[in-house]
# Entry
Amino acid sequence: TKCVHLSPVSLSEVTATSRHYVDRLFDPDPQKVLQGVIDMKNAVIGNNKQKANLIVLGAVPRLLYLLQQGSSSSELRAECAVVLGSLAMGTENNIKSLVDCHIIPALLQGLLCPDLIFIEACLRCLRTVFISPVTPVQLLYTDPTVIPHLMSLLCRSQRTQEYITQIFSHCCKTPEHQTVLFNHGAIQNIAPLLISPSYKVRMQALKCFSVLAYENTQVSMTLVNVLVDEELLSQVFVRMMQRDQPIDMQLTAAKCLTYMCRAGAIRTDDSCIVLKTLPCLVRMCSKERLLEERVEGAETLAYLMEPDVELQRIASVTDHLVAMLADYFKYPSSVSAITDIKRLDHDLKHAHELRQAAFKLYASLGSNDEDIRKKITETENMMDRIVSGLSESSVKVRLAAVRCLHSLSRSVQQLRTSFHDHAVWKPLMKLLQNAPDEVLVMASSTLCNLLLEFSPSKEPILESGVIELLCSLTQSDSPALRVNGIWALMNMAFQADQKVKGEIVRALGTEQLFRLLSDPDSNVLMKTLGLLRNLLSTRPHIDQVMSSHGKQIMQAVTLILEGEHSIEVKEQTLCILANIADGNTAKELIMTNDDILQKIKYYMAHSNVKLQLAATFCISNLIWNEEDGSQERQDKLRELGFVDILHKLTQASDPNLCDRSDTATHTSLPLSFSFSLHKTDAHKHAHCVVGY
Amino acid sequence: MSGQSSGCGFLMSVVVHGDSALNEQENELNQQLRRLYPAVNELETPLPRSWSPKDKFSYIGLSQNNLRVHYKGHGKTPKDAASVRATHPIPAACGVYYFEVKIISKGRDGYMGIGLSAQGVNMNRLPGWDKHSYGYHGDDGHSFCSSGTGQPYGPTFTTGDVIGCCVNLINNTCFYTKNGHSLVYVCLCPQPNLYPTVGLQTPGEVVDANFGQHPFVFDIEDYMREWRTKIQAQIDRFPIGDREGEWQSMIQKMVASYLVHHSYCATAEAFAKSTDQAVHEELASIKNRQKIQKLVLSGRMGEAIETTQQLYPSLLESNPNLLFMLKEGLPALVQKDLHFLFCCKTFLNLIHEHDPVLDQINLVFFLCPGCSPGFDGSCCNGVMSSKAHPSPHSHKPCPPGPALLAAAAELSSLNGSHSLQQPNASTDVDMEVDHFTNGVTESSSNGFFNGTSKHGAQTEDCDADMEVESAQSKRQLCGGSQAAIERMIHFGRELQSMSEHLRRECGKNSVNKKMLKDAFSLLAYSDPWTSPVGYQLDSIQREPVCSTLNSAILETHNLPKQPPLAQAVGQAAQCLSIMAHSGSGSCAFAAVDDYLH
# Structure
């Protein structure tokens, strides 16, 4: 009870002294006001409670008033800015209050004053406000004269350099911000600061370049040609990555070069990337580094090598990176839990970040090379870690885990072995039930690969009722999800039995199927045609599907062949016709459709060999010797002038085509080609998926 | 200690002179190796430069200056494996050692092994298979650590690849590199004296070594930078005494004693006062030493000898008096050496230039152009000044007043016909300025000498300055004076006889003999200043004399002949050399000089 009794008393005491400080700001004697501000400055340093009290008591508007008043002495104005800066150093709530009092425009206005000490105090306060996550960065850009003025202040002193570059690097969040800063000469103005004698200035300038160059081709392309003291900027960055430099500097310089490389300004085989940036980033992943540094290092490295298999290969052998990453999953360690609460807290805070960074880097490492994937899956408990990562509470970890799984799922061998052994499809299916779109895209892509014909997981997935889920994906607003949905269905339909095919058609609905055939996204269209082709395989299936949906399919085929589509789409469509021509009864749908026959004839004489080949397949199936009514069909086609075209094609330069037309003219080859067509097709599908 | 280290430097410089016959490429390699491994004393532990034609299996062929290795056996089974070691083991003082091997041809099967092995390990094997042997093998990419079965380690390697091997003698690890990319660490057994080793096993296998002849593909210097930073951080963070104030007062004592030792009386007084310490030597005594040192440093040897004999009558007794020495507790050798050293230096000065002022003491002393006016008492120092150098200005004479011009005229008449037309006359004027108007230049130089500390670069600059001057002035022996030359030769003979006397009495002293020989050889050159032995004429060479004399005086007063600070520095240096001997690699990155800014 004593305690309860005591605290309000002391609080009111504190408030009373605080009030005294504020009251003194209203003294008519300017000298006393100045002394009051100085006393206030000394009172608030390092005292968060005092700061909060003063804010509550309304010190901020008065300080701002004094700061803006032309009649205030420059000393007073500077002291006001210092006190405000000190208040900003407190809690996030302090910052919010300051921003609510319109401190930002007032301080920006203050920068127009010629007095350097005052400018520096304003900038220091602005810096503290802007680096806080609660401050809307947009406030820096509302007045268009601010950025050019800040650029002009860069030459004033090391302090202005440090604060301004720090403000820039925290307030450059979008491509628009990058453009504004770029257009106001950020590069020319900041580049010389990279060789400033002050470490802080060099560091903040470097950070500026990393945010400016990120995914920005214009900035990156400009950066590569910049000279600092007659040295190329990239070389300056390379020097900053030397091992005796502070880690923060090494890491940020590596980021700059990474972003420049990804933006296309530096080639991936440039020695400053291969021999400097990549090894530097690998070092950042080592156990000796702080957890934060390891996270950033891994993420940056993942980003750097994502598109380049050679970098992936080099990274995979450098310093045993693959094994080094396994350590990322060991936080919090069992030791830290018992011995050191502080350490445990630290570890816990970074555990998610570490895991997601490791998954990202594994995903990037394994995106192309089969040997690397094998190495990754053979890392201790790797598959278990992915499986548990898929169901972690943190979305970031789930996303990274599924990305990693997706990357590994491009391996036929892994699909057949480790994926099946660890039943990864189960958590994957669970993930698909309820997840943000970005997770869904990755998860459904992975599912596409798991549904490939040779994947042993295909059967259990089918039994888990995945078809409904995939059909619902095809109705998504996101083209990526629509593609993945229909793609997975296509893979599922490949060489499937009649029951599965029927289920797909029923669940999808013909209406949706034909809607997808006119989808604005050509990827969706391609995969839908692929699905159709897979549905129309093996003779009984062809006849069955065509008997129920023949009319609509012929209509859709006609429309596509007449429309403006890519060669690939047309080829796929002609392949569908070839499959239809392979049916027993379905054949007649073509033979009785003179329009279609004319189109086939047209494509047989097309300049593109692929289309000629596909059209020829179709004819070849129609005139097959050993089937009923082949004589009549041959007669009809001869009448229509197909034989002449086939004869011409036997002299064709393409050996494949030549062979095919030869077969067609002699009509002596067994049925096998229709099968082989599917085989080719299968190969193509698998290839597409794996490459996705 | 300081005498020891200067003796070492003496030897080293002689070696450098001998190197002039080496060809360009070898010089470049030497430079590169010295840059990479500055802590290695190659006189004790030479660095590997090529494969050894002796330490190899017979199936190994060497060519191209013993840098290319090819296989010339049958290569049928692993029993046909063959290795070669480098000429020398890796010195621990490297800290981090690195070499690269380029695969010129993988031959039939590409069974190449790159690595390390100790002396005596069977050469009929690939590196790594046996105890005290380590290797990274091209055919399977495995790492072999003293075992016939390798561990999966890195990628395989083949024709065109460059494989590196880096030994870290600080934490006893090693790692390999492939085409400039480092692979992971392997641990080494703490095993001193590992040799770079390469092994081949099938016909056609050819590899080239790079021990520093060419730039390395891997950025080894960057790796070394990291370790240098680590070691230095370790030193910086080394915990000092727990008890408060103890550390500080010890430092203060060291500083104070140093100042006293080198006779910076005013500074020492002020320092002792402000840090509340007692000075253990009388002020007058400090000032006496200061005076003698000043004379030696400015090259006025005659006066120096005279003053020394006045103040410390027994110190320079040329005939060793055993009783005296026992009484004084001075080792005979030191004293005799001291006098001998002194005389040699005098001789060198004789060669330098003619100074008539010192005729009185029956020896002719000459002043050198390198020594400038203004060695005022308060800025004269001992060891420290060895690297302190006059600024460019200090070479220039003060604007000569009428009195000086008169003095110059007087000099020229004394010297006969040569002097005034020669630029070196102006140097004489310089010296006269110093001699007669001591104190005029005091204000300009005072503080400068105290403040200038010894940056290597600065030293070089000044050396260059002096060389330029010597070239301009077309100096001649003894300022060209025939009489002076004769007196010098006479003095030389005296020296010679003194040396013989010393030898009879105390046995051979190779240092003395060498010193005399070097000094005499100066006479053989028409321009001794630019001759290979011209370094002796550098005023810097007077520093050891100065400090030896100073130490001897101090010893007669039962004071330490070395200040504790110098002792600490010497101990640190000695400690590093012991570390180098005992295989502790951190000594590579802890050079004492790095801390003496």
Remarks:
- The beta strands of chain A are 227-228, 231-232.
